[in-house]
Amino acid sequence: MALSRPLLELLSDGHFYSGNQLGERLGCSRAAVWKMIQALESAGVDIFHVRGKGYRLARAVELLTAERILDGMPVGGRQSLSVLDVLFDVDSTSTYLVERPLRMGENGHACFAEFQRLGRGRRGRHWVSPLGGNLYFSLRWRFSRGVAELGGLSLAIGVALVRALRDEGVEGLGLKWPNDILLHGRKLAGILLEISGETTGPCEVVIGVGLNVRATEFAHEAIDQPWSDLESSLGRRVGRNALAAQILTGLIAAARQYDIDGLDSFRDEWMAADAFSGREVVLQTPSTETSGVVQGVDENGALILSLKNGTRQHFYSGEISLRAVSDRLANV
C-alpha cells in the first residue's frame, strides 16, 4: 500500500488521534486508516496504539520541506541550486537524480526523501532507510575535472559532512576510508558517488548521503553493523530541515572547492579525522586480503598502507572493505 504523507502530517505533532478523527480528517473509513497505519509502520515509523485514545507517534516528527531547507541556506548556496526536490517516497534519491541529467546552464540538483525503498550503499549493499527519522539525499553536480581526477571526491565530501556536524555540536566524529563517517567508532553516515562523463572532463557526479539522525526500533532490527545516531549522542532533538540546509550548503561549497583545487584543500583535514590512522587494518577485495598499518592518503585519495615487509602500498577505492585488526580479532 502507498505511504500516506497526509496521515503522517496529522500524527507528526505527537498527539493521540482516534481512528474516527483521522478518518474524518482524511475523508476515509477507519479500516482505511488502519491499513495506512500498518503501511507507515512497515516503513519504520514507530506508532503507539492505545485503546480508548487511538494512535500517536512514539516521537513527534519534523517532516522535510523544500521551503524550510532553502530558507536555512545562505543566498550563495540557494543560487547554486537549479532544483531542490523533497520527495516523500522514492526508490533511491541517487537513482532519481541519475535519471535526470543536468540541462545546459543548470547548476546543482538536490533531492531529499523521507523514505527510500531501495537505498543503496557501497558494494551493492542495501541502505536501511526508515521513514521520517534520518536524512537521505543526493546532489547532482557538474565538474570540469575528468573521471581520473575525482578519486578523492568522496574524502572531500566526508570532510564537508564532518564540518557541518561539528557546527551542530557533535563530538567524537571520525572518518573511515573511503566513504564513512563514524561517531565514537560506530557508523553514522555513508557516502556513495556515481560518476558519468569523460576521462578528461567534464563529468557529472551524483553524491548520495545517508545520515542517521534518530534511532528507531525498526533500524535496530534491520542494521547488521555497529551504528550510531545524532539524537542519541546529543541527547536532544535535531531539527532535520535546519540540518539538511547546513549540510547541503557545506556539500555545495566542497564540490566547488574540489573542482578548483582537487583534494589539496581537504587532505590534511581528512587525515586529522582519520579514525584508523596508525592502526593495523585488513583490506579485503573479492580475491585478496592485505594487512598493514594506515599511513594516511595520497594526493589522489588512495589509502597508504605500511606493509610488514617495510614497503608502502597505495589502494584505490572500489570493491574494498577496510577493517581494524583489533575489531576483527574481537569477533573471532
CATH architectural designation of the largest domain: 2-Layer Sandwich
At CATH level 3, the topology of the largest domain is BirA Bifunctional Protein, domain 2
- Classified in CATH, the superfamily of the largest domain is Bira Bifunctional Protein, Domain 2
Q: What is the makeup of the main sheet?
A: 7 strands, mixed
Q: What is the element string, with H for helices and E for strands? A: HHHEEHHEHEEHEEEEHHHHEEEEEH
- Total individual domains: 3
Question: Helix fraction?
Answer: 25-40%
By DSSP, the count of extended strands is 14
Mean pLDDT: 89
Give me the secondary-structure category.
alpha+beta
Poorly predicted regions? none
DSSP strand (E) fraction? 25-35%
Instruction: Count up the helices.
Output: 12
In the sheet with the most strands, the strands line up as 3-4-5-9-8-7-6
N→C terminal distance: 43 Å
Q: Assign the CATH class of the largest domain.
A: Alpha Beta
Shape: globular
What is the CA-based Rg, rounded? 21 Å
Notes on the structure:
It contains 12 helices and 14 strands. Helix 2 packs across helix 3 (30-42) and helix 7 runs antiparallel to helix 10. A hairpin with a 5-residue loop joins strand 8 and strand 9. The protein folds into 3 domains: 5-57, Winged helix-like DNA-binding domain superfamily/Winged helix DNA-binding domain (Arc Repressor Mutant, subunit A); 66-271, Bira Bifunctional Protein, Domain 2 (BirA Bifunctional Protein, domain 2, 2-Layer Sandwich); 276-330, Roll (SH3 type barrels), CATH 2.30.30.100. It has a 7-stranded mixed sheet with strand order 3-4-5-9-8-7-6. A 5-stranded antiparallel sheet has the order 13-12-11-10-14. The longest helix has 22 residues, at 240-261. It is 32% helix and 27% strand. It starts with a helix and ends with a helix. Residues 77-259 form the BPL/LPL catalytic domain. One of its GO terms (biological process) is regulation of DNA-templated transcription. InterPro entries: aa-tRNA-synth_II/BPL/LPL, Bifunct_BirA, Biotin_CoA_COase_ligase, Biotin_operon_repress_HTH, BPL_C, BPL_LPL_catalytic, HTH_11, Transcriptional_repressor_C. This is Biotin operon repressor / Biotin--protein ligase.
